[in-house]
Amino acid sequence: MTDDSSLKPTEGESASKRLRRRGFLSTAAATLGGTFAASTPSAASESGGRSDLGGVPTAAFDGNQWSLSWSDEFNQGYVDESVWSFETGNGHAQGIPGWGNNELQYYQRENAWVENDHLVIEAREEQVSDQYGSYDYTSARMKTQGGYNKQYGRVDVRARLPEGQGLWPAIWALGSDIDSAGWPDCGEIDIMELTGDDTDTVHGTVHGPGYSGGNSIGGTYNNGSFADAYHTFQLTWYPDAIKFFVDGNHYFTVTLYGVEDAGNEWVFDDGPFFFLLNVAVGGNLPGAPDATTQFPQRMEVDYVRVYDWV
Predict the structure, then answer these.
(1) Nearest alpha-carbon partner for 253 in 66, 45, 21, 70
(2) What are the E-state strand segments in 239-282?
(3) The predicted structure's pLDDT at residue 56
(4) Could you please report the per-residue DSSP string of 198-245?
(5) Does the active-site annotation cover 193?
(6) How many helices (H) and strands (E) would you count in the chain?
(7) So what CATH class is 2-40+59-309?
(8) How many Cβ atoms from other residues are within 10 Å of residue 270's Cβ?
(9) What is the pLDDT of residues 8-63, one digit of tens each?
(10) What residue segments make up the domains of the chain, in order of their start?
C-alpha cells in the first residue's frame, strides 16, 4: 500500500498561508435539500496505478509548482486491482442498505473495465438479486482503500460524465480512518458530483462532523453539458484549505477557519484519504430514473493524477 501522509508543507504552503484570515470562505455556502450545498456559480469553460515518474515536468497551478507523485493512466488494458478494489451489492453487507440514500443500483465488478486507455464505469438497467432482494439496475463502485492513501497536494481527474434522470456519478475521497472514526467524522471530500438530470452543473463539497448530508459545505460550477466532452476536475488540498476547480477554473474554497468559526471541527488535517469512483442510480437524491433515462450510461475516466507541491 502506498501512503503519502508523510508529506510536510514547505514553501508551497504559501498559497495556504494567504488564506489564513479569520472566517474566510471564498463563496458563501448554503444548504440544499440533498447531499449538496450550493454557492454562487462560476461560469466558463506509473502504469497500472503507478506512472513513470521519470522526467515528469513540474506544472504551475494555484500559485504553486507541482510534481506528479502518483497516477493511474488506465493504459494497461485492465483495472489495477493492487490499487483499486470493488464494493459490491446494495450496501446491506456494509450495514447501510441503499448505500444510506435508498439507491437502486447493485454494484458489481463486471460493470467496470478499461477500454481504449480509459476506465469505464457503466450503469445498466438489468435485474439481479441476492439474499437481501432484487434490483433493477447495476453499476460499479471502486476505491483505493488499502491500495493508495493521500494527504494534501493536488488531484486531477479527467472524465466524461453520464446523463439522464436518476444518475449520480461521483469522484470523491474518504478519510482512511473511516472504520474507526465512522462517517462523517472521518471526513469526505467530493471532488465532483453531478445529477444526470442537470448535466450542466457539477458540485464540489466537503462533509464532516456537524456539516454532512444536507448540511454539507460546497459550491457549484456551470459549464454546459459535462456529458458531451471530457473535463478535468481538480482539487488542491492544504492543511487549512481545500480549493475546487474545473479545467483550471477555480470556483470554491473552504477553509479551516470558516469551518471552525461556525462551531465545527476541521477533519481534513487528521490523516490521509482514499479515492472512490462510482455511478449511483436512484435514491433520495437524485430520484429514480424515468421514461427519459436511457441505459446503459457510462462515466469514462482518462486518468487520475496526484501531485505534491515543490
Answers:
(1) 21
(2) 241-246, 249-255, 273-281
(3) 53
(4) -TTEEEEEEEBTTB-GGG-EEEEEE-S-TTSS-EEEEEEEETTEEEEE
(5) yes
(6) 3, 23
(7) mainly beta
(8) 18
(9) 333 334 333 333 332 333 333 332 333 444 333 333 323 334 444 444 555 689 99
(10) 2-40+59-309
Give yes or no: 188 in active site: yes
Rounded Cα distance between 154 and 70, Å, is 11
Torsion over CA of 207, 210, 214 and 218, rounded to 10 degrees? -40
94 exposed, middle or buried (CB, 10 Å; 0-12, 13-18, 19+)?
A: exposed
Instruction: Report in angstroms the alpha-carbon separations of 31 from 36, 70, 111, 158, 211.
Output: 7, 34, 33, 28, 10
- Beta-bridge mates of residue 158: 232, 303
Q: Which residues in 173-200 are b (16+ Cβ under 10 Å) and which e?
A: bbbbbbeebebbbbbbbbbbbbbbbbbe
Helix (H, G, I), strand (E, B) or coil at 181: helix
Q: Rounded to an integer, what distance in angstroms lies between the CA atom of residue 80 and that of residue 62?
A: 30
Rounded-to-integer distance, Cα 295 and Cα 300, Å: 15
Q: Which of 73, 103, 122, 193 is catalytic?
A: 193
Q: Which amino acid is at 303?
A: Y
60-93: per-residue pLDDT in tens?
A: 899 999 999 999 999 999 999 999 999 999 999 9
Catalytic residue among 87, 163, 188, 300: 188
pLDDT in tens, 193-210: 999 899 999 999 999 999
Grid cell in block for residue 86: 470493488
Rounded to whole angstroms, the Cα distance separating 234 from 205 reads 12
Sorted by sequence, the CB contacts under 8 Å of residue 151 that are 6+ apart come out as: 4, 5, 7, 237, 271, 272, 273
Q: Which three cell numbers stand for residue 266?
A: 476541521
Q: pTM here?
A: 0.85
Neighbours of 50 (CB within 10 A): 17
- How confident is the model at residue 38, as a pLDDT? 36
135 has a pLDDT exceeding 50: yes
Longest alpha-carbon distance in the chain? 54
